[in-house]
Structures are given as C-alpha cells and as structure tokens.
Amino acid sequence: MAFLVGMVITLLVPGCHCDEGSGCSGCGLNSLVAFLLFGGFIGALFSLLFVLPASLLLAFVVNLFSGRKK
Prior knowledge:
The chain is mainly alpha-helical. Helices cover 63% and strands 9% of the residues. α2 (30-38) crosses α3 (41-64). It is elongated, with a radius of gyration of 15 Å.
C-alpha cells in the first residue's frame, strides 16, 4: 500500500523523479516518498501502521456521507 502511495505521488507531482541510486527529487517531501517506494520491510510496517488505518477511516467517512439511505 505504501508503495502504491509513493507511485501515485511520483505520477501526479510534476517534476518528481525517483530511483534507487539517488533517491527522489522534486517531490516535495523527497525523503518520505523515497521511504515509501524503497523502504522494504520497514516501508511495509509503516503502511500497516499508518496507511491502512487512514484508508479505513477515509472509507468510513465516505460511507457516512454517501447519501445511500435504507
């Protein structure tokens, strides 16, 4: 999940380039984006602790305001 967030950031931010040798440049929070893309086990653990709960919270909020009534 964290890798996907990092990929979306690199695709949406103009001028953002990342590679394993030099890291990321032009992304704003360059070190965070590099960590999300190339973090390995630590990146996966970070995504379980922060990205997954944030996604679940966002899904809950969207469900509250979706307007579908029974």
